[in-house]
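Anyone opening a protein record will find just a pair of labelled lines. The record below illustrates this layout.
***
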Amino acid sequence: MSANQLVSTVHGNTRRDFLKTSAAGAATIAGLTVARSVHAAGDETIKVGMIGCGGRCTGAAAESLSAGPYVKLAAMYDVFDDRVQGRRKVLRDRFPDQVQVDDAHCFSDFEGYQKVIDSVDVVLIACASKFHPMYAEAAIKAGKHVFVEKPHAIDPVGCRRMQAVCDLAKEKGLSIVSGLQSRFHAGFQETVKRIHDGAIGDIVSMQSMFLRGPYQTVARNAAYTETQYQFSNWYHFCWLSGDDVPQSLVHNMDRVAWIMKEEMPKWCFGLAGRSTSFGEVYGDMFDHHTVVYEYASGARVYALCQTRNGCYGNSSDIVMGTKGVCHLGACRIEGENAWTFPRDQHNNPYVAEQKALIESIRNGQPINSGYHMANSTLSTVMGQIACYSGKPTNWDDVAKSDFQFGPSPDQASFDTAPPVTPDVTGNYPLPVPGVWKT
C-alpha cells in the first residue's frame, strides 16, 4: 500500500478527492499533514539511523529497509555498545547491501544520539521511553524525518514536549510517524470507518485489554553500577518506562481515541498493584492495572493491563453501541449491521507505517502523526497517575501538570544517582495508592 493510498484509506477519500483538496499540492486531512518534499532531488538514497538497539528499533529498521533498496542503514546508537554490535550483525546478515554502518558510525556515548541525527535523513527512535521526546526534538530541530515508538512520553511534561515537536515538524515540512501502528492496519481502518458511519449506533462503553506476561527481564551484570543496571533493564523501572499503562494500554487508548474521533476522557480512576512479579528484575513497576475512563457523552472505557505469567491473555478491544457490538481485534461487527473484514485483506501495520514514512519522503508528502500521538499518550499517563495515587484524576489537571519522573531526560546518564534502590530482600519500593503524589 502506498503512502497516498494509506492516507486515502484511513480517511475514506479517493486519490482524486485528495488531490482536489489543495491546488498548491499540500493538504491536511483529519490531522495527517501533507506537504512538499524536503528530500534532496536527484538522489534516491535515504539514509536511516537507529536510536536504540533493542528488539523494537531493530524491527523498525528491518521494516524500513524492506521498503526498497534505496533505503540504507547508516548509523546506530545505544548506551550499551554490545547491543549496537549485536544488532548491526543481525541486520547486516539480513540486508548485506543496505546496512552500511561502519565502526565510525556506531555510537554508545550519551551524545551518540546527536551523532546519529547528524549522519542520516531519517531517525528511528525506540529506546527507554523517557528519552523519546528529547531525541525526537533534536532530530526535528536538525531537519530530519522521524519515526518514534510508543509511548511518546512517560509524564505530562514529556507529553507537552512531544506535542511541541510534532507542531515543529509540521512547520518544517518534516514527517513524524508514530509507533502506534494500529492506525496503519487495513482492517482497523475499515472497521473504525464503519463505526464512525453509525454501524453500531452511539457508543456506550468499551472494554480494552492488554493482558500478557512480563516484558523481557534482564539479570544484573555484576560489572554495572546500579544506574547502569536500571538502564539495561529499563522496561521495569518507572522513571525510564513510565510503567505499564503508558507502555501497553497506549495501543488500546489510541484506538479508543480514534474511535471517539480524537475526543479525550474527562476523568478516570484506577486500581493497581503487584501480586506475583517479585524480585529485582521486576524493578518498581506494578504487574496489573485497571483504569476506568469517562467521556463527556457518558461513555466509559474499562481498560485493563497486566504483566503476569500463567494468566489470561488478550490484547483487543470490544466496542459496545446502541445498535451493535464491535470486536475490533477481529474486525467484526455484530448486530443490525453485521459485518467482518475479509481475513485475506489484512496487512502488517508495522511494515505499512515504515513504508508510508519512506514513501512520504520520496514523494514529498510528509506525514504528521501529531494529531493523536501526544494526546493518546497523555490519556495513559493520566491513567497511570490515577493508579499510583488511588484518586480520581481529570484531564485538565494532568494536561497542565508539571509532574515529571526525575531526573529530566536532558540530565539523565550513567552518572545519575539511581532514583530507586533495592531493599535487603532485593525488591524495589513501589508507589503506594492513597499516599503517592505527583
The chain is about 35% helix and 20% strand. Confidence is low (pLDDT under 50) at residues 1-41. The CA atoms of residues 184 and 353 lie 6 Å apart.
